[in-house]
Amino acid sequence: MLHHPATDEIRLEGVMHALSDPVRLQMVRALADRDTPCACGSIDVPVSKSTRTHHWRVLRENGLIRQTEQGTAKLTELRRSDLEARFPGLLQIVLNATPAPAEPASTLAS
Amino acid sequence: MLHHPATDEIRLEGVMHALSDPVRLQMVRALADRDTPCACGSIDVPVSKSTRTHHWRVLRENGLIRQTEQGTAKLTELRRSDLEARFPGLLQIVLNATPAPAEPASTLAS
Fold first, then answer.
1. What is the tens place of the pLDDT at every residue in B80-91?
2. Which residues make Cβ contacts (< 8 Å) with residue A95, sequence separation at least 6?
3. Cα A39 to chain center, whole Å?
4. Beta bridge partners of B39
5. Res A83: pLDDT
6. How many helices (H) and strands (E) would you count in chain A?
7. Is B98's CB within 8 Å of A17's CB?
8. What is the ipTM of this complex?
């Protein structure tokens, strides 16, 4: 059972902590570019699997993402609406400040 | 000589780290409520002097505040315009989410 804080338990300092790491910022950026929950292993970051797992946990426990177990994978999505309810506008500012890794010119994130 | 990053050296993850601590959030809140630079010792937080000094350094080295030495005191102010240039809207969202300590009803922060 994966722990997720309720929306009203999401704390600003926890969100700030979760976003204080450049790898986690890239993971949030990658999730934001996807329309549907994705297998967490599909997000490519230049760290070991155990470090990646750690980063997902930090993001989840601080209310940034929701993970649902599906077999051996975890379907992962950004808690956009919960974050927007708690800190309106914050996520978009963070995304604006976090460039995506090299994107094909025809698929700019909306 | 106190180190301050240039505006274009201010990094999102550093700002996030600086704001990931509830005491530092209160210090930023208190500075935001002041119109002029203030002696850093005048911001009242429930930690030891050495811890407070540490927090000021974290805020300064990550570009949140500017400190100017004046005798034994440090005049301290929020780098509002620099932060607004780097991450438009971020500071206000953080302030919105960080209640001031009990304020007299007649002096609501603008």
1. 999 999 999 999
2. A28, A29, A32
3. 12
4. B75
5. 97
6. 5, 3
7. no
8. 0.85
Count CB atoms within 10 A of the CB of residue A95. Answer: 17
B52 near B15, Cβ under 8 Å?
Answer: no
CA distance B47 to B45: 6
Q: Do B87 and A97 touch (CB under 8 A)?
A: yes
Distance CA B23, CA A6 (A): 23
Query: If you search the block for the tokens 């909306």, which residue do you land on?
Result: A110
A67 forms bridges with which residues in the sheet?
A: A76
Residues of chain A with C-beta less than 8 angstroms from the C-beta of B88: 93, 96
pLDDT exceeds 60 at position B100: yes
Q: What is the pLDDT of residue A91?
A: 96
pLDDT tens column, B49-79? 999 999 999 999 999 999 999 888 889 999 9
pLDDT tens, residue by residue, A4-49: 999 999 999 999 999 999 999 999 999 999 878 888 778 888 999 9
Task: Give the one of A22, A25, A93 whose C-beta lies nearest to B89's C-beta.
Answer: A93
In A1-110 the beta strands, taken as DSSP E runs, fall at 38-39, 65-70, 73-78
Distance between CA atoms of residues B105 and B96, nearest Å: 17
